[in-house]
Amino acid sequence: xxxxxxxxxxxxxxxxxxxxxxxxxxxxxxxxxxxxxxxxxxxxxxxxxxxxxxxxxxxxxxxxxxxxxxxxxxxxxxxxxxxxxxxxxxxxxxxxxxxxxxxxxxxxxxxxxxxxxxxxxxxxxxxxxxxxxxxxxxxxxxxxxxxxxxxxxxxxxxxxxxxxxxxxxxxxxxxxxxxxxxxxxxxxxxxxxxxxxxxxxxxxxxxxxxxxxxxxxxxxxxxxxxxxxxxxxxxxxxxx
Length: 240
Fold this sequence. Notes:
The protein is α+β, with helices and mostly antiparallel strands. The chain is 28% helix and 20% strand. The chain is globular, with a radius of gyration of 19 Å.
């Protein structure tokens, strides 16, 4: 029966691409959004998730490599009509790594402008103020009640509030420190590509054993002639 074959094809495609359960009944799953704001946010998220210990992203925490460890917690990356879903074993821990944090020496770490909407028994729901993009971190299991879910979130993000400081993600608007990073979410010619790589990163990591790393360029590097020579952004690939 054709419809049975189609269903099996969809399920196998979802397995190969690490999409979880397919949400669409069309002939192929939708992998990429069309909204420019969502694309810009996902492009930035790609850069952050491709932080490595050898090539830390400028928004990485110094000496901690928090974002470099996220890929080990991921189970699926799924496009939904109005948001991005990341399925994981520990949503609250990932939230603590991507929510913005003002480091006293380094400046903003994490994703500038990312804000908490709420925490449920299975989801941490986030929004990115500058792009109006949406991200849901979805746990594989469901917490017993809301009190437990909130307690786990508070435990994982407690280091954001050391010394009584107010977390950046508690601010209603964009702070000056975050706004200084506006170029990181500006829509450019490479935005769709970086977003597309995010949506296909799970097979790269786990099926093909490739480890992409985002290496930002330097707009003011001094060349051998003594004049500033910009270097482009690059993606490096390594296989373990």
